[in-house]
Design goal:
Order of helices and strands: HHHHHH
Strand content: under 5%
CATH superfamily: nmb1532 protein domain like
Radius of gyration: 17 Å
Shape: globular
Number of strands: 0
Length: 191
């Protein structure tokens, strides 16, 4: 399996939780209140699974490997992806703050911005950036990246973190009637 395939599989799980977030927001818009427990689970998923695991693989390993092959860090696709990661982090912080204060409208606004931005971001990665990476990397490069991704999972994340957040994604999908992404149990390299 290629490193970009792992990242794409993780994207499917992230999109599943974005679908749940959209449902949480729709319910909040309709009722004027939000399901604090589900909102908290979704935001924690985005903070840990999407950012600390998935984005860490990209920022610490994929992007530097691409730079080593001549891709620019200062301009072009990599700089756009990093800027969008930062935008996403800002939205997640805003959602966390809104949950803490029970502010429904700010939560919904930040959640809508996050969902829209991250969906577009995922499309750019899946249909452009990952193809460029696959074309740039030979088999040895791919193997090195896979080992680095494994290290993120095995050494940089707490034991069981990945599985915990896959379970949260599954529970949210069941609660909100969102289609489960098949194969998400194998979303990462060590599964």
């Amino acid at each position: 399996m290629k490193p970009t395939e792992i990242l794409s599989r993780e994207h499917r799980v992230i999109e599943q939780v974005l679908d749940c977030l959209d449902q949480i927001i729709a319910n909040a818009d309709r009722t004027g209140k939000f399901d604090k427990a589900s909102a908290t689970d979704a935001v924690n998923f985005f903070r840990t699974f999407a950012d600390q695991c998935h984005h860490r693989k990209e920022e610490a390993h994929l992007f530097p490997a691409m730079e080593a092959k001549g891709f620019s860090h200062e301009s072009g696709s990599i700089s756009v992806m990093i800027a969008e990661h930062e935008q996403g982090r800002a939205c997640v912080r805003q959602m966390r703050e809104a949950i803490a204060t029970g502010a429904v409208q700010p939560f919904a606004e930040a959640g809508r911005r996050y969902s829209e931005m991250l969906r577009q971001h995922i499309k750019k990665e899946d249909h452009c950036l990952f193809d460029m990476a696959d074309n740039a990397f030979n088999a040895a490069d791919q193997a090195v990246l896979l080992a680095k991704f494994e290290k993120v999972e095995a050494e940089e994340m707490d034991a069981g973190t990945h599985e915990k957040f896959l379970s949260i994604a599954e529970a949210l999908a069941k609660k909100f009637g969102v289609a489960m992404q098949t194969g998400h149990e194998h979303a990462c390299c060590h599964h």
